[in-house]
From TrEMBL:
Heme as UniProt keyword: no
UniProt-annotated catalytic positions: 101, 319
Keywords: Aspartyl protease, Glycoprotein, Hydrolase, Membrane, Protease, Signal, Transmembrane, Transmembrane helix
Protein name: Peptidase A1 domain-containing protein
UniProt key word Protease: yes
Subcellular location as annotated: Membrane
Family stated for the protein in its record: Belongs to the peptidase A1 family.
Domain Peptidase A1: 83-438
GO molecular function, one term: aspartic-type endopeptidase activity
Length: 506
């Protein structure tokens, strides 16, 4: 009796006021023209939009802040198989649910008249279509626009002499794809800055308008409005907001691994004393790391280190857009053999649709070994059994647990997806070209700082605000705040911020 195979697809990536100065003989005379028309009938939406732009400039001039996003979804391929967040774009702001993807650079959403875009979702979220014509703050990006040229070198943008529109054409590792054109419009968000929460902030960003989708992107079972690329290239939202001085060139996430899912996603650095860092491989299109070896139960596997080297056809990539994890072909068989040799006296190996599985009648933590992925700089990523196993079903009263790591036939690519990333803090310090991580309960609070340009990692005890508003520099026990879906509770303590994840899969 065989069990159904679990999904194993890869998704990689992807108004100032009007003033006139008249100079004659000294002293100069200033004639100020009002930004409101003489009949005082400027639409309220225009006034609100002008205020949003002004507030954005005030935010930019006052320093870098932390921007947080709600997190929903779970890694479990039998439930959702992805993590996603909700964004607000355009005027008036409209909600869009987009997958969190560190394997691509660009934010794109489905647009009106899209061919192949799903109209409903099995995730029970409302799907929207962005319409540039209905947002007065939207504008199309031409090929001559400097913002279009930012994506040419990284192949995130293409130009057509036929219509002079800056466009894109993305193909993902699972065979799906999308193409469309770029628009500029406002991204709305809340920012923590200088010990205060600034609501209803906004900033102009360039993002993709999807006119065509193919492959798994057309399916409704796990459909979202688009993909939020968190790559390090210039077209990413992280880079765009950093260039405007709104947020640091860094982001962090902590993805919950239980069935409720959710987690924490911020533009900023999560600060935790156990975080270890390893340098990014320079000049790579993805978040490539130098993995040196794999250890099982404390024993380093006999794998040639060159297997993990980075080149155009191999390397180790951190990718939140991949559900499972994938090992280079030359490393996969030694890994499976090491696991099986350790657990075989206690469990029965079971092959299910080509997947290496085990029938277990007790706790996997009592049977399966700890795995360590070892990286440059002495940083090790410790994997407990739940980080490399997935429970598939039950057979004859025994649980069937399968290895979640897959083999990429004939390739030397290792991809660490959500199966490995969950239940850990991950910090993507783009400014200092490094990634850090630490095992963590992502239902708990975290400390977040924008002070990432120093390259230092330090922990400061979070305080609470006293009645007079001054921070108390004393340890504070952090407890999760109960709340509804898509919410993140914020406690502010001076320039250190505490985020509590309460998002859950819908």
């Amino acid at each position: 009796m065989g069990a159904a195979p679990f999904p194993a697809g890869i998704l990689i990536a992807a108004v100032a006021f009007h003033a006139t100065v008249v100079l004659s003989s000294f002293p100069a005379t200033f004639h100020l023209e009002r930004g409101i028309t003489a009949n005082h009938k400027l639409k309220l939406s225009k006034l609100k939009e002008r205020d949003r732009v002004r507030h954005g400039r005030m935010l930019q001039s006052s320093g870098v802040g932390v921007v947080d996003f709600p997190v929903q979804g779970t890694f479990d391929p039998f439930l959702v198989g992805l993590y996603y967040t909700r964004l607000q774009l355009g005027t008036p702001p409209r909600d869009f649910y987009v997958q969190i993807d560190t394997g691509s650079d660009v934010l794109w959403v489905s647009c009106g008249s899209c061919n192949g875009c799903p109209v409903n979702s099995g995730l029970h979220i409302p799907l929207n279509f962005f319409d540039p014509g209905s947002s007065p703050t939207a504008s199309l990006i031409s090929c001559s626009d400097q913002r279009c040229s930012l994506g040419l070198q990284s192949s995130d943008s293409v130009c057509s002499a036929q219509n002079n529109l800056c466009g894109y054409n993305f193909q993902y590792g699972d065979g799906s794809g999308t193409s469309g054109y770029y628009v500029s419009d406002l991204l709305h968000f809340d920012t923590v800055l200088g010990g205060s929460v600034m609501n209803n902030s906004s900033a102009p960003i360039v993002f993709g308008c999807s006119a065509l989708q193919a492959g798994d992107l057309t399916k409704s079972d796990r459909a979202v409005d688009g993909i939020f690329g968190f790559g390090q290239q210039d077209m990413s939202v992280v880079s765009q907001l950093a260039s405007q001085g709104i947020s640091p060139r860094a982001f962090s996430h902590c993805l919950k691994g239980d069935d409720s899912g959710g987690g924490i996603l911020v533009l900023g650095e999560i600060v935790e004393p156990n975080i270890v860092y390893t340098p990014l491989v320079p000049s790579q299109p993805h978040y490539n790391l130098n993995m040196h070896s794999i250890s099982v139960n404390g024993q380093t596997l006999a794998i040639d280190p060159s297997v993990f080297g980075t080149s155009s056809s191999q390397g180790t990539i951190i990718d939140s857009g991949t559900t499972l994890a994938y090992l280079a072909e030359a490393a996969y068989d030694p890994f499976i053999s090491a696991i099986t040799s350790i657990v075989s006296p206690s469990v029965r190996p079971y092959l299910s649709k080509g997947n290496h599985c085990y029938l277990i009648s007790s706790s996997i933590n009592d049977i399966f070994p700890q795995v360590s992925l070892n990286f440059a700089g002495g940083a090790s990523m410790i994997l407990i059994p739940q980080d490399y196993l997935i429970q598939q079903s039950s057979i004859g009263g025994a649980a069937l647990w399968c290895i979640g790591f897959q083999k990429i036939q004939g390739q030397g690519i290792t991809i660490l997806g959500d199966l490995v990333l969950k239940d850990k803090i991950f910090v993507y310090d783009i400014a200092n070209q490094r990634i850090g991580w630490a095992n963590y309960d992502c239902s708990m609070s975290v400390n977040v700082s924008t002070a990432i340009d120093t390259g230092k990692s330090e922990f400061v005890n979070a305080g609470t605000l006293s009645n007079n508003g001054s921070p108390k520099n004393m340890p504070h026990k952090l407890t999760p705040q109960p709340a509804g879906p898509c919410s993140i509770s914020i406690l502010v303590a001076a320039s250190w911020f505490i985020f509590t994840a309460t998002g859950r899969a819908m």
